[in-house]
Amino acid sequence: MSQAFVDVRDLTKIYLGQKVASVDDVSFTLEKGKMLALLGPSGCGKTTILRMIAGLIEPSSGSIIVDGREIANVPVHRRGIGMVFQAYALFPHLSVEQNVSFGLEMRNVPRAEREQRVRQALELVKLAHLAGRRVTQLSGGQQQRIAIARSLVIEPSILLLDEPLSNLDAKLRDEMRSEIREIQSRTGTTTIFVTHDQEEALSMADCIAVMSAGRIEQIGTPQEIYDRPATRFVADFIGRGNFIDGTVVRAESGTAMVEVPGLGAIQVAHSEPVGGKVELLIRPHRIEVGLNLPTATNHFRGTVREVVYTGEMRSLTVAVGNLSMMVDSPTRGAGEIRRGDSVGLAFAADDVTVIVAKSGEEVAR
Amino acid sequence: MHSHFLTRASWGFLIFLIYLFLLAPIIVVVIISFDTRPYLAFPPEHLSLRSYALVLQNATFVHSFGVSLAVGMVVAALALIAGTLASLALVRHQFRLRNAAAFTFITPLLVPHIVLAVGVLLALATLDLIDTYTGIIVAHVGITIPYVIRTVSMSLEAVDIRVEEAARVHGATSLTTFRRITLPLILPGVISGAVVAFLISFDEAVISLFIVNTHVRTLPVAIFNYLEFKTDPQVAALSVILILISLILVVVIERAIGLRRVLR
Amino acid sequence: MSVAAIADQAPPHISRSDRPLVALLLLPGLAAIAVTFLLPLLWLVRISFSDAAPGIVTGGSGTLVNYVKIVTDPFYWRIAWNTILLAAVVCVLATTISYPVALFLARTNSRWRGVLAALAIAPLLTSTVVRTYGWMVILSDQGVINGSLLWLGIIDAPFRLANNFTAAVIALTEILMPYAILAMLSGLGRLNSELEGAAALLGANRWKIFSRIILPLSLPGIATGALLVFVLCISSFVTPRLMGGGRVFVFGTEIYSDATATLDWTRAAALSILLLVLFSCVIFIYQRIMKSIEL
């Protein structure tokens, strides 16, 4: 295990006069060169954490260690941290070039070196040709790239991004997503970004911390977060899912049967204590659907209530027993399915995630 | 950390001192108004309401208060009507000379009042309207219309034109639409405009000093003349009354539409 | 100025253009403006070129004699100098003192922000006469300042603080500050706390943040505030007259006595036109400066 480059321990922030903490005893680590996403709904405390790392907000308690150095007491202008603000915060009275070189001027970097580094930074974001422009004349996407160049040119220990894609329109968003990723891996800068968009987090980050009400619900790779959500909150927040309650009726090593009232028995790929109440999650795209009964460990018959075409995919709402399940099925070659059709649903034991408890408690298997 | 607190404290103290300077005359006038000595002195000897009583008995002051009040209300009414109509034209209609018209309505704001005062004096002289109610009302209406247009236009712009269109689609005539739909919605702007027009006319000294004196005497003129020859706490008491009136009206404006946007 | 902004409004406020209606709507307002503004200005120009007898507007012929008399009289050059000097001093003082307040109001997050802003600006809606009176009380021989100093035993005889140039300066500075504060506040709208945060993260300490970010961005507002104070000052007359004790002669006081005491209307008109010319020159210079700052 490589040593953590960023080590946040028991970080807490309680605002004056508030009873509830905005950030409640949060701890996490980040390896050098990796990108972490703080993901959660607005008000969950993710931006507060970012600002505490930047030094713009003072923590109530806890420590922030970057590259072995405790920075919680270091004044903002000495932290050597780069940050791209949500509205970019470019200096309106300075040109592109002057904006980017600002940080270097503050560090008294000699002119020749400054000019060279500024040029390199602008080339990195592919905007070298706009060096002399006023920043107020740039488009949103260009402004963001200048903001990135401005933060990176000082070679910061870490780079912070506050909702980097939320101000951009859809097409620009896709473009910037891959660009940010590319810049980050090319420079190898350890990066933390904040977002409320799970797609953004899943596609850009090496590691995601899902947050709710000031606490981290789960940290893991995008794959882990998606496939094995630890709590109902995480499962609900990331992707869509079918949530089913049931009771464990039989268990052997590595497998168990869960009885779901109104549906039947579902086999899961983990052992659970018999008699325990569990919540199951089955992602819509992991369920196979067909007019004939497909073969698989778990299979049921149901009636199609609704079909929504989205081009590449069909989203079906299927009534199975007493329950209503969402199924995503690719349209490719699968033949027509219409409302009222009787269909077979199938999924493997592996396709089921067991969420044992409500948010904030045990990790799922 | 400590030096941070110290700089913030001294910063705060500086701001406090500046505010003190800014509000000094008003504060002093309030304090003096409770004095009884017939000359300007500080600190006040006894505190009493005698000056207020004297003011209320002072025929000149009471009369000119009434004059200012009457003039102010007439000016406000006239400026309101003219200004609201003009705003309707400027905001709701597109026509070729719109820019020129809008500019024309700002011009009174661009010229110093004293230059205007002499001009108005001369103009009124030719019409033989010096020292008349008509003269001063006409003069004040001109300088208050731009403010009315500003406040009413702000309110008008905030009203979505589609609401008016919906009214018309449902059968309302233009007049009814204005009366039942637009007017209630722009009421904040209208009220602020009227109040601002009144206040400006009520407090107006410069132009008034040029064009009225004996027959028509507004309050600022009366006070000015009084101050040229003597000073005593009566003026202070009167001033406090005026300040209170302005304050109340300012609160009305602030509640209706926000003070900063009116003045700039 | 937002009234000018009306002219730039694009749809959705536009409805069908209806010439007669528009003309009707604009008529009362335009008529009022014509009578109270355009007409007077025309008369002003006309009379300034006339040699009519005092107190009369008719019977004169077109002549430059008024202007000649003013321009060749050193007394009026002295007046011009007084006016500009007074305005310059007040301008510098008012701008310097107003800036901290404007900065404070623009950056503070306090709950009292609205109240404090109103407090700084509301004095504008009270009469100049009242505020000037307040200063007379403060600065007079038995006034607040002298009274307190005498009472405390710091001085034996009162300072001559009233009825002179200094008094006019102090009073005018305070009276005109709200205008400067307003102008600066509008100009500071571009400043937001993110900019300061960004600068700090890039390594700027508090002084650098002020000198490199806050001050440059405040300049347009400061310039506008300074302009406002200056032009209002050169045109002022109530305060110089009351505070100056008969010793302060500026354009305003001269025009007033010419127009109301000696009834020398032709000269008053000529002086007013000259004042207007001075006024326009200042604005012209201001616009040139603003263009060169070019933001």
Structure description:
The complex is a heterotrimer of chains A (365), B (264) and C (295). Chain A is 23% helix and 35% strand. Chain A is built from eight helices and 20 strands. Chain A has a six-stranded mixed sheet, with helices on both faces. In chain A, strands 13-12-11-14-20 form a five-stranded antiparallel sheet, with no helix packed on it. In chain A, α2 crosses α3, α2 runs parallel beside α4 (140-152) and α3 crosses α4. The radius of gyration of chain A is 25 Å and the shape is elongated. In chain A, 40% of the residues are buried. Chain B has 264 residues and is mostly helical. Helix content of chain B is 80%, strand content 0%. Chain B is globular. The two termini of chain B are 39 Å apart. The mean pLDDT of chain B is 84. With 295 residues, chain C is mainly α. In chain C, α4 (74-107) packs antiparallel against α10, α6 (128-139) packs across α8 and α9 (193-201) packs antiparallel against α10. Chain C has a single domain (65-293), classed as MetI-like (MetI-like fold). Chain C is globular and about 75 Å long. Chains B and C meet through α1, α3, α4, α5 and α6 of B and α1, α2, α4, α5 and α6 of C.
